[in-house]
C-alpha cells in the first residue's frame, strides 16, 4: 500500500498539488471486515471554514474474490484522489448530484496515475470492475457475487430512476469523457484540465453540468481559448451526449 501511496503522491506533486490541497500522507487502514474501500473523513466548520478531521482510507476485502482491495492499486489511487479533491472542494459528493462528479473525478485521477482506463483489474483481472473506455457495463457486487450490470453510457441515459442506483452506476458518461480527452491529449494534460476545473470552477453542490463548464473553462485557462486541448474537451462532452449547442456556447 505504501508503494501506491507514494506513486499517487508523486503524480500529484508533478501537477503542483500542495499539502493544503490534500497531497499529504493519509492512513491506509486494512480491515478485512469491510466489504469495499473508502476515503473517510468528518467535515466540520472551524472559524467559519470547512475543516476535515479523522481522515483515513478504509481498505477492505472483496467478498467475491476474497482479495484485499489493495491488490488493485487503482482502487487506492481512487481513494487517494478523493482525499485531494475533498481538500480542494470540501463537501463535494455529499449530495446525489455532486456525488456522481466526485466519484468520476476519483476514477479520472486514478486512471491518470495508473496509466490505463480500467479500474480494479488487479482484483478481478480482465477489464476490471469498470472501464472508462467502455462504460456500458460494470462488474458489481450482488451479495457475495460479482455480476455484469448494464450501465448508462450517455448522459441522456442517466435518469431519476438510474440515479436511485447510486453514483457508481451512473458515472460512465463522465468517465468516458475523461477517457476521450486523455486518449486525445494524453492523460497528464487531461488530469491538469480536471485539476483546474476542481480548483477554480467546482463547489460542494457541483453537478455534471458544472463539470462540463469547468473543464471547458479550465482547458481555456491553461491552454488558451480555442486551443486544441479545449476543442478536445468540447468534443468529448458532445460525444457522451451533452447538447452540442450548449457545449459550444460555454466559454
Ligand atoms: Zn469513490
Find the count of extended strands (DSSP E, 2+ residues).
Answer: 7
Tell me the strand percentage band. Answer: 15-25%
Point out poorly predicted stretches.
Answer: none
CATH homologous superfamily - what is it?
Neutral Protease Domain 2
From the alpha carbons, calculate the radius of gyration and give it in angstroms: 17 Å
CATH fold-level name = Neutral Protease, domain 2
Largest sheet: 3 strands, mixed
Sequence of secondary-structure elements = HEEEHHEHEEEHHHHHHH
CATH class: Mainly Alpha
- Give the termini distance in whole angstroms: 41 Å
Q: Give the structural class.
A: alpha+beta
Averaged pLDDT = 96
Tell me the count of domains: 1
Question: Residue share in helices?
Answer: 40-55%
Order of strands across the widest beta sheet? 1-3-2
Note the overall shape: globular
The count of helical stretches stands at 11
List of distinct ligands in this structure? zinc ion
CATH architecture: Orthogonal Bundle
Topology:
Layout: H1 2-14, E1 28-30, E2 37-46, E3 49-59, H2 73-88, H3 96-114, E4 118-119, H4 121-124, E5 130-131, E6 137-142, E7 145-150, H5 160-163, H6 167-170, H7 172-185, H8 187-201, H9 208-223, H10 228-239, H11 244-249
Parallel strand pairs: 1-3
Antiparallel strand pairs: 2-3, 4-5, 6-7
Helix pairs in contact: 2-3, 3-7, 3-8, 7-8, 7-10, 8-9, 9-10
3D architecture notes:
49% of the residues lie in helices and 16% in strands. It has 251 residues and is α+β, with helices and mostly antiparallel strands. It has a single domain, classed as Orthogonal Bundle (Neutral Protease, domain 2). It has a three-stranded mixed β-sheet, with helices on one face. A two-stranded antiparallel sheet has the order 4-5. Strand 6 and strand 7 (145-150) form a beta hairpin. Helix 8 crosses helix 9 and helix 9 runs antiparallel to helix 10 (228-239). The radius of gyration is 17 Å and the shape is globular. The N and C termini lie far apart (41 Å). The model has no long low-confidence stretch (mean pLDDT 96). Bound molecules: zinc ion. Zinc ion binds at residues 78, 82, 103, 106.
Amino acid at each position: 500500500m505504501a508503494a501506491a501511496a507514494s506513486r499517487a503522491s508523486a503524480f500529484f506533486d508533478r501537477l503542483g498539488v500542495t499539502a493544503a490541497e490534500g497531497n499529504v500522507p493519509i492512513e491506509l487502514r486494512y480491515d478485512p471486515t469491510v466489504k469495499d474501500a473508502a476515503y473517510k473523513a468528518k467535515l466540520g466548520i472551524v472559524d467559519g471554514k470547512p475543516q476535515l478531521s479523522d481522515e483515513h482510507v478504509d481498505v477492505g476485502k472483496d467478498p467475491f474474490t476474497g482479495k484485499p482491495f489493495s491488490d488493485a492499486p487503482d482502487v487506492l489511487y481512487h481513494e487517494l484522489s478523493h482525499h485531494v479533491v475533498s481538500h480542494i472542494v470540501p463537501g463535494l459528493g455529499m449530495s446525489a448530484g455532486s456525488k456522481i462528479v466526485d466519484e468520476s473525478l476519483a476514477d479520472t485521477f486514478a486512471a491518470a496515475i495508473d496509466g490505463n482506463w480500467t479500474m480494479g483489474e488487479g482484483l478481478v483481472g480482465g477489464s476490471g470492475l469498470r472501464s472508462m473506455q467502455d462504460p456500458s457495463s460494470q462488474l458489481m457486487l450482488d451479495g457475495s457475487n460479482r455480476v455484469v450490470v448494464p450501465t448508462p453510457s450517455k448522459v441522456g441515459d442517466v435518469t431519476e430512476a438510474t440515479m436511485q442506483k447510486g453514483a457508481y452506476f451512473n458515472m460512465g458518461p463522465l468517465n468516458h469523457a475523461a477517457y476521450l480527452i486523455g486518449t486525445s491529449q494524453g492523460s497528464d494534460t487531461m488530469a491538469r484540465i480536471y485539476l483546474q476545473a476542481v480548483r477554480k470552477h467546482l463547489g460542494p453542490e457541483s453537478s455534471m453540468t458544472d463539470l462540463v463548464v469547468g473543464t471547458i473553462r479550465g482547458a481555456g485557462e491553461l491552454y488558451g481559448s480555442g486551443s486544441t486541448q479545449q476543442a478536445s474537451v468540447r468534443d468529448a462532452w458532445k460525444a457522451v451526449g451533452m447538447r452540442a449547442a450548449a457545449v459550444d456556447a460555454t466559454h
